[in-house]
Design brief:
- This protein is an alpha+beta fold.
- The protein folds into three domains: 95 residues; 102 residues, no CATH class; 157 residues, no CATH class.
- It is 49% helix and 14% strand.
- It has a seven-stranded antiparallel sheet with strand order 2-1-3-4-5-12-11, with helices on one face. It has a three-stranded antiparallel sheet with strand order 6-7-8, covered by helices on one side.
- It is elongated.
């Protein structure tokens, strides 16, 4: 009996040690973002479940000799399990305080000042994005056509110190977006010198910042309004929609000049005219959404179709279209497939339609255009915003 009681005391100590091990393992997995530690924690939880059976068996074996004292190991087990279940989330939150995983505590103090200095350095220098993924050399992308600019090593170290893997710069909106990937989610911290209005209510002017590569304009000009199946496998723009519009907006002569010289750079004058044409098309007055090649069918798995190219409902442009359909800003045509704008729209509705057009143009123009409206879910104050994808 004495040996059994000694084993029971060891079992109670094991309960306490196991509880600490679970709490520490899950907290470490949260801090390090480690799936391995998370699975190890789940393994410990399974082990603790087996430990519960051992505590029940020990209680039965000791009951005759120790009565209520025989339940001490089981009571220790229940208490430790309850403490772990209730306390581990608080321990994890405390360990993550002041890190990007806790937007309610980040950025503050020195982190806030340091990242604002980073944003100030990046803005106005034609940066487009900086990749600082762990284990890889930093990759810097400039606005297409801009001369490369070196990024100071201490700035890269600062981005990596907070785990930011991607930094996006939008000079048009004086905005810098710091992004970190953590357990299958992206944590985005947006900083601007001004104020971010609600999504899809801001100005949507297309500038050179939004151009992925000007070479795509020449590709469109060379392709013409039609494409064979083999040609379509080599391009990502939709020639049947974009070429006729550019021919009307820029003129046949300019398109022929763009498509004539393979490898020749687009001139500043051509860029200016192209941006003007793109901005005319993104306006609500262009009624791009009413183009015959754009349809929306409820019976299809992917509802929105652009000249036969179907878009997943997960894309922001499809979600925006669905919102405008519910609001009545965009309406169904008589065939219930094509779309129409309502007769009179408010200024806000026109802004929303402009962003809808931009979302469509991002796909129609392939690698030429990539413009986005930077949404957020939390206003952190002092020009800082947050969203999680």
């Amino acid at each position: 009996m004495q040996k059994s009681w000694t084993r029971a005391r060891r079992l109670a100590c094991g309960n306490i040690i196991a509880a600490f091990a679970v709490a520490i393992t899950f907290t470490a997995s949260a801090v390090l973002g480690s799936y391995l530690l998370a699975f190890a924690g789940l393994g410990l939880v399974v082990g603790i479940a087996g430990l519960g059976i051992a505590n029940v068996v020990a209680g039965f074996r000791l009951w005759n000799g120790y009565r209520w004292w025989s339940l001490a190991p089981l009571a220790t087990y229940v208490g430790c399990a309850a403490l772990v279940a209730a306390g581990t989330p608080f321990l994890m939150r405390a360990a993550l305080a002041g890190t990007p995983q806790r937007p309610d505590t980040f950025p503050r103090g020195r982190a806030k000042a340091g990242l604002e200095d980073v944003a100030t350095h990046l803005l106005g220098r034609s940066f487009k994005s900086i990749s600082t993924r762990s284990g890889a050399a930093a990759a810097v992308r400039m606005v297409d056509g801009s001369a490369p600019v070196a990024v100071p090593p201490d700035l890269l170290r600062q981005l990596r110190s907070y785990g930011f893997e991607e930094t996006f710069v939008d000079d048009t909106q004086s905005l810098v977006v710091f992004s970190r990937y953590y357990f299958r989610s992206w944590y985005h911290y947006l900083h601007t010198s001004g104020v971010l209005d609600p999504v899809y209510s801001r100005r949507s002017t297309i500038t050179s910042v939004d151009i992925e590569t000007w070479a795509e304009l020449s590709n469109i000009a060379r392709q013409g309004p039609e494409a064979s199946e083999a040609a379509r496998a080599q391009i990502v723009f939709e020639p049947s929609v974009v070429y006729p519009y550019l021919r009307q907006a820029l003129g046949q002569e300019m398109l022929e000049a763009l498509g004539r010289d393979t490898g020749a750079e687009v001139t500043p004058e051509q860029k200016t005219l192209a941006l003007k044409a793109l901005n005319e098309q993104r306006r609500a007055s262009s009624r791009l959404i009413e183009h015959p090649s754009i349809t929306y069918g409820d019976e299809e798995r992917f509802h929105l179709s652009l000249a036969g190219m179907r878009l997943s409902d997960s894309f922001w442009v499809v979600k925006l279209l669905q919102t405008l359909l519910r609001n009545g800003t965009i309406q169904r045509a008589k065939d219930n497939r094509h779309l129409r704008m309502k007769t009179e729209s408010t200024e806000l509705e026109e802004r929303q339609v402009e962003w809808l057009h931009i979302g469509l143009m991002n796909f129609l123009y392939g690698n030429l255009l990539d413009k986005r409206d930077h949404r957020y879910s939390m206003d952190l104050g002092d020009g800082w915003y947050f969203r999680r994808d």
